[in-house]
Amino acid sequence: MCGIVGYIGDRPAYPILIQGLKQLEYRGYDSAGVSLLGEGMSVFKKKGKVSELENHIGNKKLLATAGMGHTRWATHGEPNDINAHPHVSNNGHLVLIHNGIIENYAVLREALTREGYTFTSETDTEVFLNLIEAYQNKEKLSLADALSMALSQVVGAYAIVVADDRNPDVIVAARKQSPLVVGMGNDEYFIGSDATPIVRHTNKVIYLKDNEIAILDRNEGVTIKDSKNVVQKPHIEEISLRIEELEKGGYEHFMLKEIHQQPQTVSDCMRGRLNNQEGWVKLGGMEEYGGLFENAERIILAGCGTSWHAGLIGEYLFEDLARIPVEVEYASELRYRNPVIREGDIVMAISQSGETADTLAALEHVKGKGAMIYGVVNAVGSSIARLTDAGSYIHSGPEIGVASTKAFTGQVTLLSMAALWLGKRRGTISSSRYRTLISALARIPEQIAETLKVEDQIKYIASEMTAYNNSLYLGRGYNFPVALEGALKLKEISYIHAEGYPAAEMKHGPIALIDENMPVVVVATNQSAYDKILNNIQEVKARKGTVIAIVSNGAKEISKFADHVIEIPETAEPFSPLLSVIPTQLLSYHIASLRGCNVDQPRNLAKSVTVE
Ligand code: F6R
């Protein structure tokens, strides 16, 4: 949520900031703004996308060599020019951008109002900024010290960049529960809410830790301090992100690119971890805690949205292959419950971004209760990856489209390998089944490539589905979570109401909705419940619903009843979601695109949800 970029060096800052904002736009696109510091300070901000900010600025000559930029996902105050960041303090000298929420801002606002401060926006950000100014005024503190004092007064999560136009050689940044990365160039320094705006300038970065403050000084370089003002030794890391990974590569949208990348990303996830010829699967992070996994009493899988759906598939996998009881938790619920967590439990956090506030908070909540915490994360070096005891990256590469696609298949691939590894280690899976499943999993990348060939057929089906306002997704067993995921994907990018259900539950309520205006997507690739799904399809047809069935090659019976049959390659049932989800991704994409929706940046959404 909200993108942050900052620069200080000897080059004009504006092109660096605007380019960085474009790169960060997937994090929020309600408004955008920049501030430049040189001789004085200038601020430009505009409701809407970065391109609107660019048009607003036009051809102005902006040569200042320090500044900050922000792209907003609104929390406090509607998206408009006034609420857009950066904000300027009452005395006109301090400028600040912020990602996160200051929870006690109302109390602080009241106190500052009593002191004579006035506010032009409805944001918590402006309140916090004036608190810094108040400390500077009262106690004659440096910007960093005033920021530190102000931070000690706030409750909430934040990533903040602040500067003072009376000292344009310094930019100060701080974080708590919201990521910030400092880029280390040659006599120039960058700041970003992730590495994407930095990577084209330097691959040397420092991931700020919670409660740390970074002082970027044009002359003295970067100093990191903790909350007690003690200087920390910075840990400079080299990142391997490439610029091509952040571009569309000829596709119309990032989402389409990411759907098509899946043969490669799933294969990357397996690289070095699965060997079909030798017949083994292993995950370094799990082996390190082999005894704990082997003797685990329970696995709790926690995540949000699409990652939660991957967790549901994990439940089927671990119970089926490793015979360990599993619970799947919405992280947002887990964090506020009083869950029974014991030694012997393993909590696995699933997250693409590694920054989702609810997932992070759930982990904080269970940490210290005796369970081992394991991360299944895409973003390398992210907060969740750091908080966990151990983990495995899914190696899907940057996912820019707001709707998650390749990260989902990466997560499911990782959980498939984890369940296989654990099943073998616990002796709950026969050698022959283990061997067969390894071969099946090894073939998935090429089978995803094969599955992607249904795209033309899906475009045609999509053209029929654009007219409907509702749809139902049904699936059973391993494919029930795919029905949930298919429905989520459709509603989030096309704004068509969609619901996912276990197919057999249809009779307990949703069947009342079915008529000729209700398309029903049935994920019917299961071998085990094939006949039962066939019955469900007939029940829909009897009520004039339109059936779009996703089946394994050669499922002749279903084609007699369904209106559209999408045939995909057959695989072992535990891995069928890795194939059956692909047509649902393509369907949502093409429906949304035909409806003229902004596929990569659906309304009201942002890529990483770093607020509650
Ligand atoms: C849906 C989607 C979201 C995310 C959710 C969790 O397409 O992308 O539902 O899955 O916000 O995000 P991560 O995985 O980053 O924790």
Describe the protein:
With about 600 residues, the protein is of the alpha/beta class. The protein folds into three domains: about 5-245, Aminohydrolase, N-terminal nucleophile (Ntn) domain (Glutamine Phosphoribosylpyrophosphate, subunit 1, domain 1); about 250-440, Rossmann fold (3-Layer(aba) Sandwich); about 450-600, Rossmann fold (3-Layer(aba) Sandwich). It has 20 helices and 27 strands. The strands form five sheets. It has an eight-stranded antiparallel sheet with strand order 3-2-4-1-10-9-11-15, covered by helices on one side. A seven-stranded antiparallel sheet has the order 5-6-7-8-12-13-14, covered by helices on one side. The protein has a five-stranded parallel sheet with strand order 19-18-20-21-22, sandwiched between helices. It binds fructose -6-phosphate. Fructose -6-phosphate binds near residues 307, 352 and 492. Fructose -6-phosphate binds near residues 359 and 492.
Write out key terms for the chains shown.
612 residues, alpha/beta, Glutamine Phosphoribosylpyrophosphate, subunit 1, domain 1, Rossmann fold, 3 domains, eight-stranded antiparallel sheet, 27 strands, globular, binds fructose -6-phosphate
| Count of distinct structural domains | 3
Give the N-to-C terminal Cα separation.
11 Å
**CATH superfamily (homologous) name of the largest domain:** Aminohydrolase, N-terminal nucleophile (Ntn) domain
Identify the CATH architecture of the largest domain. 4-Layer Sandwich
Low-confidence segments: none
Helix content: 25-40%
CATH class wording of the largest domain: Alpha Beta
Shape estimate: globular
Q: Might you state the CATH topology name of the largest domain?
A: Glutamine Phosphoribosylpyrophosphate, subunit 1, domain 1
Estimated radius of gyration? 25 Å
Question: How would you write the strand order of the largest sheet?
Answer: 3-2-4-1-10-9-11-15
Figure out the total of helices: 20
